[in-house]
TrEMBL record:
Protein's UniProt keywords contain Oxidoreductase: yes
Pfam families membership: PDH_C (PF20463), PDH_N (PF02153)
Presence of the UniProt keyword Oxidoreductase in the record: yes
Native organism: Komagataeibacter oboediens
Sorted UniProt keywords: Oxidoreductase
Domain Prephenate/arogenate dehydrogenase: 10-300
Name of the protein in question: Prephenate dehydrogenase/arogenate dehydrogenase family protein
InterPro entries: 6-PGluconate_DH-like_C_sf (IPR008927), NAD(P)-bd_dom_sf (IPR036291), PDH_C (IPR046825), PDH_N (IPR046826), Preph/Arog_dehydrog (IPR050812), Prephen_DH (IPR003099)
Membrane-traversing stretches: none
Length: 300
């Protein structure tokens, strides 16, 4: 009989098996080198029932503390505004040397809310992670095992985090198929403000603007939407609770990027008003070059 390789974690607990959490579980079920036991925990009875039906966890719990008691790694996959509250439920029962992670889209405010807990439980390694992958859908049915393949996962470990814990979380995300990069929470939030949060703000806004116009003109503007506008509507279909939490928690960086965007949009408007072809063409060419470089790097 051949020896089975030792899994990366004995018990991996996912709190909030929605889109992101259930995708981690699905990958974990397919590749049992990730964890010997996969535990899911959710506040919603419907989600717990669905996770059981889907068979994507070895155990399903309703109480985070019960779920986390014998975990080697707990990953909190709930909306940003609830992450620290869940951490406060699990940290008192977690084993010394265990790893606590989360996948929230904003890091600065989460780290601020976590600071007293980290001081109280210094034997738990806290390693925030943010997979730069997702869709406009939510819930356990929306997840899929390949969601993180060829995507970045950004880690923002605090300065004193044991290197072995960082190595294990890096390995976990690499086993999910992702590429991993570490950075500070401030840098993370500024990067995500421009590449993710502002685009979502624009999508929600432009859909509203077009809908207002349709109301005003009582015409079917949205029916004629070409593919560019349809791409905005896909993003605008995202979950309201999740995006409310992201906008309010990344307020400073997001408002900074919004101001910059308004200035740049204004400059494009001025160029159109004055017929400045060079400015118009150079801005369009810049957009094309960015798209081409993403395609070359397999990120589009
Ligand atoms: N949706 C996306 O594309 C991405 C989301 N994220 C982040 O991942 C996190 C989860 O997002 P999704 O998976 O999309 O959300 P989701 O809505 O699909 O799943 C969240 C789950 O958390 C559960 N939950 C909420 N509060 C809870 C609590 N107090 N205790 C236990 N369970 C609780 C909900 O019942 C739900 O099942 C968010 O922080 C989000 O910012 C990160 C990358 C991409
Ligand atoms: O659906 C899309 O286009 C996304 O951009 C998904 C997404 C949402 C939130 C994140 O923090 C990361 C990725």
């Amino acid at each position: 009989m051949t020896d089975q390789p030792v899994p990366l974690f004995d018990t991996l607990v996912i709190i909030g098996p929605g889109l992101i959490g259930s995708s981690i579980l699905r990958r974990g079920m397919e590749d049992r080198r990730i964890a010997r036991r996969l535990v899911a925990c959710d506040i919603s009875p419907e989600v717990r029932a669905r996770v059981t039906e889907l068979g994507i966890a070895d155990r399903v719990e309703s109480d985070p503390a019960t779920a986390a008691r014998d975990a080697d790694c707990v990953i909190i996959c709930v909306p940003v505004g609830a992450i620290a509250m869940v951490a406060a439920q699990v940290m008192p029962v977690m084993k010394k040397g265990a790893i606590l992670s989360e996948v929230g889209s904003v890091k600065t405010t989460v780290m601020e809310a976590m600071t007293p807990l980290l001081a109280q439980y210094p034997d738990i390694a806290f390693i925030p992670a943010h997979p730069m992958a997702g869709t406009e859908f939510s819930g356990p049915d929306a997840g899929f095992a390949t969601l993180f393949e060829d995507r970045w996962c950004l880690l923002t470990p605090p300065g004193h985090t044991p290197t072995d814990a960082i190595r294990r979380v890096t390995e976990l995300w690499e086993m999910m198929g992702a590429r991993v990069r570490s950075m500070t929470v401030d840098h993370h939030d500024r990067v995500c403000a421009i590449v993710s949060h502002l685009p979502h703000l624009l999508a929600f806004t432009i859909c509203g603007t077009a809908d207002d116009l349709a109301d005003e003109t009582r015409s079917e503007v949205l029916d004629f939407a070409a593919s560019g506008f349809r791409d905005f509507t896909r993003i605008a279909a995202s979950d309201p609770t999740m995006w409310r939490d992201i906008f309010l928690n990344n307020r400073e960086a997001l408002l900074d990027m919004l101001d910059r965007f308004i200035a740049d949009a204004q400059a494009m408007g001025d160029a159109i008003r004055t017929g400045d072809e060079d400015v118009i063409v150079s801005r369009i060419k810049r957009g094309r070059a960015i798209r081409r470089s993403l395609i070359e790097n397999r990120q589009a």
